[in-house]
Amino acid sequence: MSADAGQALLTNTVFDFLIVFVRVSSMVMVLPGLGASTVPAMAKIGISLALTTIIAPLVAAALPPMPQTPALLVAMIVEQLVVGITIGWLVNTILYALPIAGQAISYQIGLSSVLLPSTDMGAESTLVSSIFSMLLPVLFFSSTLMIVPIIALVHSFHRIPTDFIGQSHGVGLMVLLIKLVIKSVAFEFLLATQIAAPFLAIGMIWQAGLALMAKASPQMQIFFVAAPLQILVGLGMLAALLGPILATWQADAGRMLLHYVAL
């Protein structure tokens, strides 16, 4: 092999690794758990490099040659960022149905109030939602769900070209990604509502009963009498239903990840 051929081979190998690394790292930066600001940057880079080393040989045939101009190279890198972030964001959106369900559950069992936001946890955070948010990375990395983003990345190199800017099918691919984002958001709220459905139903019955009690005995402070019982019953329901809640979330989220994210 001549020196020029060896140099060209090395250049193409480095270019292929760079393209794969950009798409992989942009997805890793927004995955549950890994995308948190508390995770060290070196850990994120290490995981991205490890995944790139595994994925790059699998998708080498689908990668284009190195662009001839710096402008095209920059455009191609931006494309990888968009695709990687979109895949990671889809995974994040579908999985975050669990914390959203936790918000609804927390409101129903009386551990938070839309009128009295917590100064410690923030106006949009609730106790149950925060617990579910901490559980989410553990459930994600301890189950088969973590394999889906890797499968999606490998498939994306074969189904979403790395140089679709300026091509006729580029607009169609962007429309596809937008549709996937819309569907994933809709599924997120649907799954959250399904998970919190028992608490929503019992909460409606409970509030109707309190309204009748307040009507029958207006001189009694029904809220202060019923609030401790509401919290006690709600925590009992949460303890009894926690296993089915997590099982339902894991099964439905895994199914939708394979359907929407794995392309």
Automatic annotation (TrEMBL):
User: A Gene Ontology CC term for this entry?
Assistant: plasma membrane
Where does the chain cross the membrane?
A: 12-35, 41-63, 70-90, 128-152, 164-182, 189-210, 222-247
Spell out the subcellular localization from the entry: Cell membrane
Q: Which GO terms describe its biological process?
A: protein targeting
- Membrane topology summary: Multi-pass membrane protein
List keywords of the entry alphabetically: Cell membrane, Cell projection, Cilium, Flagellum, Membrane, Transmembrane, Transmembrane helix
Which InterPro entries does this one have?
T3SS_IM_R (IPR002010)
* Similarity annotation: Belongs to the FliR/MopE/SpaR family.
Task: Please state what the protein is called.
Answer: Flagellar biosynthetic protein FliR
Question: Which lineage is the organism of this entry classified under, starting from the top rank?
Answer: Bacteria, Pseudomonadati, Pseudomonadota, Alphaproteobacteria, Acetobacterales
